[in-house]
Amino acid sequence: GQEKLNCNPRKENGSHVVLCELGNPMKAGAQVTVVMELSVSGLEDMGDAITFQLQLRSKNSPSPSNASVTVPVEAQAEMELRGKSLPATTVLPVSWQRAEGSQRPEERGITLEHVYQLHNKGPSTVSGVTLRLDVPTRLGDSELLSLLELGTEGGMDCAHPPGLNPQQV
């Protein structure tokens, strides 16, 4: 039959130990299968595996049996990218002409602002995330968009693309 084990966590010699009483007395030749579910936090910097040391002690045996179990650790986090353009819709007037050589943005075209937000929905923390946005700057032989500036908030580093503000507007 299946029975719930009575397990007690405690510290021994600076290690976290979970002591489970399997049965007393146990019949000779008895076989026991134990399934344990552990919840462990703070594994972000543990590498790719954690090892549990198991020890089976019996009052009838002078030396304990030792074994170790290595469990792979995988941090999981769900990332969500949101974005919007301000204004949401842009239409150039038919009679509009671009002022060549002008340093004023309003004479070069309509200013658009694209805002992107990257959210970590958990459950783990993340680091070393790379977000790459490809923005079309040309349509055939014509200039479509001219990237004027790039900014970040929230402790992110951003690598500026090589074609940022080529006309120095």
- The largest sheet has its strands arranged as 1-2
Shape: rod-shaped
How many strands appear in the DSSP assignment? 8
In the predicted model, the low-confidence regions spanning at least 5 consecutive residues are: none
How much helix is in the residues? under 10%
Q: Report on the biggest sheet.
A: 2 strands, antiparallel
Membrane topology: Single-pass type I membrane protein
Subcellular location: Membrane
Keywords: Glycoprotein, Integrin, Membrane
GO molecular function, one term: integrin binding
Could you characterize what this model shows?
Keywords: Glycoprotein, Integrin, Membrane. The chain is 2% helix and 33% strand. The chain is mainly β. It folds into 2 domains: 6-72, no CATH class; 75-93 and 105-168, no CATH class. The strands form 4 sheets. The protein has a two-stranded antiparallel ribbon with strand order 1-2. The protein has a two-stranded antiparallel sheet with strand order 3-4. It is rod-shaped, with a radius of gyration of 31 Å.
Helices and strands in order:
Elements: E1 6-12, E2 15-21, E3 49-56, E4 65-72, E5 77-86, H1 105-108, E6 113-123, E7 138-139, E8 142-143
Antiparallel strand pairs: 1-2, 3-4, 5-6, 7-8
Key terms for this structure?
169 residues; mainly beta; 2 domains; two-stranded antiparallel ribbon; rod-shaped
